[in-house]
Amino acid sequence: MSSFEYTDHDRSTLAITSATLRDGTRVLEFTATGCWTATVYVPLDRVEEVIAGLRDVARQTAGQAPTGEALCGLCGAAHGSHHHRWTSTDDAIANARWTAEEAGA
Hints:
Elements: E1 3-7, E2 13-20, E3 26-33, E4 37-43, H1 47-61, H2 88-102
Antiparallel strand pairs: 1-2, 2-3, 3-4
C-alpha cells in the first residue's frame, strides 16, 4: 500500500494512503490529525483536481497571480461562473485552512 505523511511544526499530521471503499472504488484517503481528525476519500479520477486546487491555493497564498483564468478545483469551470453545494469535503478543506491560518502558515 502506498502512503505519504506530512507532519507540521505542531506535530499535526496529514496522511495520504491508498484505500478501497466497500463498493470497490479505489480512492486516496486523506486523514488530517491534530486537535481534531478529518478524513476525506478522493476517487482516483479526481486526484488531479485536488492537486490543481492545492497548487492554486499555494500560488494565491504566496501572492503570485495564477497563470491564465482561475479555475474551480472541483469542476474546472471559471471561478465566479457557478457555485457548488457545501459538502463534507468542503468542511475538511475549510478546517485545514483554519488550522493553517491559526498556525500562521
